[in-house]
Write a structure and sequence with these properties.
Blueprint (H helix, E strand, L loop, with lengths): L1 H10 L3 H4 L1 H8 L5 H13 L3 H21 L6 H21 L1 H29 L8 H9 L3 H22 L20 H18 L7 H18 L5 H15 L4 H11 L2 H17 L1 H6 L5 H10 L3 H18 L4 H11 L6 H16 L5 H6 L8 H17 L10 H18 L6
């Protein structure tokens, strides 16, 4: 019953726009709430990106509100009231602090810019996919973009390429393991695999219905891992794993916990860490969290603390938040300073490893981008100087140098990127080319 309430709640944001006649047609004779979710998804597909964002934010906010209300024994009503009061208080504080409000609006703009870059990259490629996917031409187009756009465009390209292949075959193979006729630079592979993993996750979870049993979740997980393995370039499969957490948390939240439990049952700590890292990236880009950033960061951090049930899960989730916030706001470090100044004690220790990963990725893909210098030369407010040094400047410098934190073992995502960096440098030193 609770699933139906959540589904109908999400449909409340879309039904009035869809039309009474289509609504009746969709509901008559149907027994699965999944059909109603598909109806909402169909509507979103007809919207422009701005309307999609608003619709998704509404779904997120109602889903999170339902999560607070569904179990009265946990004080759901009190928790919801506290959350609303907190957001109102932070909104008032932003109005009274113009500089803080300016940074909040800047962060919102940066998040939406990333969203637009990925969506536009995917859409432009998807529109011509049926005519034959020219990966070489698409890569050449991405490399012609300005530096700040390349990272996200590679992710969008990987997603579009994977989605096109999965549209034509349930079991495509060697998509990035051995692409033919395409000279892809080594620096483009990580985000291409992130996009590919996202397309595979989407295909594997799309068939799950509202009331599927655990065995169905296990089958979907096994298919996801198999498709990643047979399509990833050697050494990059872990990057594709990360996207399962991203997709499940952002697009299929009803399956997030079942998938997490299925991964835990496998006993693979690296897979589990990558899954939670992807979930952290997803939290940063959730439209509800992006909207909440205009009045404070409480929602994002509270969801992180609620979602992660173990210290290891939380640390990897924090790292995902650190990576996403740093890559998104690298040219405006004051935005990240604002986040750390307000929530730093609840973002460490994992956040700093996300910052280090961002430095590794950015220095490899766009080493001459001036935003790196903006980050390194940033001077935080005095009250934030210690947290900025610990969680932002020093980890970034370590990432640029390919170093590990002296007193902390690298989490799986950072370990992957340090390995790829070392491999690239070894190739160059041996006289090979990067790519």
């Amino acid at each position: 019953m609770s699933e139906w309430v959540k589904v109908l709640s999400r449909l409340g944001w879309t039904a009035s726009l869809y039309g009474a006649e289509r609504w009746v047609q969709a509901v008559q004779g149907r027994s699965s709430g999944r059909d109603l979710d598909l109806l909402a998804a169909d509507l979103r597909s007809r919207m422009g990106s701005g309307w999609k964002l608003l619709c998704r934010a509404g779904e997120d906010l109602q889903t999170e509100g339902w999560a607070l209300l569904k179990d009265p024994t946990e004080g759901g009503m009190a928790a919801l009231g506290e959350a609303l009061a907190s957001q109102a208080r932070q909104g008032l504080n932003s109005l009274l602090a113009p500089e803080r409000g300016k940074l909040a609006r800047l962060e919102f703009r940066n998040r939406m810019e990333v969203y637009r870059l990925v969506v536009e990259s995917h859409g432009s490629i998807e529109s011509s996919a049926d005519e034959g996917f020219d990966l070489a031409a698409a890569v050449e187009g991405v490399l012609g973009l300005e530096p700040r756009r390349q990272l996200w465009a590679f992710e969008g390209l990987g997603h579009a390429y994977g989605a096109a292949a999965l549209h034509h075959s349930d079991e495509p193979a060697h998509l990035l393991a051995s692409p033919t006729g395409c000279d892809i630079p080594e620096t483009g592979w990580p985000m291409l695999h992130a996009g590919l993993g996202l397309a595979i996750a989407e295909a594997c979870l799309a068939g799950l219905g509202i009331d599927e049993e655990t065995t169905a979740v296990d089958r979907s997980l096994k298919r996801f891992l198999r498709l990643c393995q047979i399509n990833a370039r050697p050494g990059h499969v872990r990057g594709a794993w990360d996207s399962l957490g991203f997709y499940a948390r952002s697009q299929a939240p009803e399956w997030f916990e079942p998938i997490s439990r299925a991964i835990e049952a496998r006993g693979d700590r690296t897979l589990l860490g990558m899954f939670w890292h992807g979930a952290g990236r997803a939290l940063y880009f959730l439209p509800s969290c992006a909207a909440a950033s205009l009045v404070g960061e409480d929602l994002m951090v509270k969801l992180a603390l609620r979602d992660a049930k173990t210290p290891y899960a939380l640390e990897n989730l924090q790292a995902g938040l650190g990576l996403a916030s740093t890559l998104t706001n690298l040219a405006q470090p004051a935005v990240v300073e604002r986040l750390l100044g307000a929530q730093g004690d609840r973002l460490l220790p994992g956040f700093s490893q996300g910052v280090a990963s961002a430095a590794v990725i950015r220095s490899a893909l766009t080493p001459d981008w001036t935003a790196v210098e903006a980050w390194l030369s940033h001077r935080p407010a005095q009250e934030n100087s210690l947290i900025w040094e610990e969680a932002a400047r020093l980890p970034f410098c370590q990432g640029l140098a390919g170093e590990r934190e002296p007193n902390a073992a690298p989490l799986p995502f950072l370990e992957l990127n340090l390995e790829l960096r070392a491999r690239n440098l070894k190739s160059v030193a041996a006289g090979g080319k990067v790519g």
